[in-house]
Structures are given as C-alpha cells and as structure tokens.
Amino acid sequence: MTSRTGFFALSAVLLLVALVCMGEGVQLIATGKPLGIGMGLCAFVIPLIGVWFLRQTVRFGRASERLARELEAEGGLPVDELERTAGGRIDRASADAVFARRKAEAEAAPGDWRVFFRLAVAYADAGDTPRARRTMQHAIRLHGGAGTGTAGPAASTT
Q1: Could you read off the pLDDT of 61-120 as tens digits, one per residue?
Q2: What DSSP assignment string belongs to 73-122?
Q3: Of 25-39, 109-123, 134-148, where does mean pLDDT reach its minimum?
Q4: Which residues contact residue 79 at a Cβ distance below 8 angstroms, ignoring those fewer than 6 apart?
Q5: pTM of the prediction?
Q6: CA 129 – CA 68 distance, rounded (Å)
C-alpha cells in the first residue's frame, strides 16, 4: 500500500468515526441531563478538531506537491546525492554535509522559496521531520507571496 492510499484510507476512517461520534453526541444531548449534554457537546468538538487537522494536512500536502512540480519543471529539484549504508539507510555524515550546504544557500537567499524547499528536503533526509515541515511551510508562504523577503522561523534553525 502506498503512503497516499494509506492516507486516504485513514482519512476515510477518521471521517467515519467523526460521524459516529457526532451521532452519539446527539443522543447524549437528547438525554437532557447536564452531564449528557456536556459529553454530547464534547462529542461534537473533538471530531471537528480532528477534521480541521486533516484539512490542514491535505492543504500542506497539496501545496508541497505544487512546489515540487514547479521546481521539477524548472529543473531545480534536489538530486539525491546522499551516501547510503549497505542496508539502504542514509549515511548521517553525508546528510549533514548536504544539510550544511542547503542551509548556507537558504541564508544567502532568504526570499527564495526554492532554497527553502531544498532545505526542507535536507531536514527530512537528516531525520528532523518537525523542522522539515516548518521549513516547507516557510517555502510555501514565500511561494504564495506571503513572504516579504525576510527569513521567518524556519531560517532561524541551528
């Protein structure tokens, strides 16, 4: 199963659980008892938070793919130049060297979404997923015109 298929399967399950939870919430509210009403309201709020997170994840994925397609059309996608162990894992020293180069590129061009895209890939290759996501979000903001040419929180990484 591909990660995309898995994502859609889990998303469908999340939406189904949200609907069931909201149905139970209606029944709890219908009891008329204060505790039932409180639990019923929670049964509405919690699934809404989950659906909001799902929506944000889908938006992030679509925006990242859009940037990757544009960068590919320009011929600027990062080339996989990482050394790998016999088991196929990325060599840490190789990932660190590529990361240092990508970080220097981002510091030299703080308003260019392309260098932040490549830096996000370097973060992901180095195993730092939270910084990779923040840096990709910064690249998306720069691409969308939200960036003012100044480096945001993603550029202040050390």
Answers
A1: 999 999 999 999 999 888 888 888 888 888 888 888 888 999 999 999 999 999 999 999
A2: HHT-SPP----B-TTSPBPHHHHHHHHHHHHHHHHH-TT-HHHHHHHHHH
A3: 134-148
A4: none
A5: 0.74
A6: 17
Q: Are 115 and 106 in contact (CB under 8 A)?
A: yes
Distance CA 136, CA 117 (A): 6
Please, which residues have CB within 8 angstroms of residue 129's CB and are 6 or more apart in sequence?
123
What H or E segment, with its residue span, contains residue 22? Answer: helix 3-30
| Spatial CA neighbour of 156 closest among 86, 117, 106 | 106
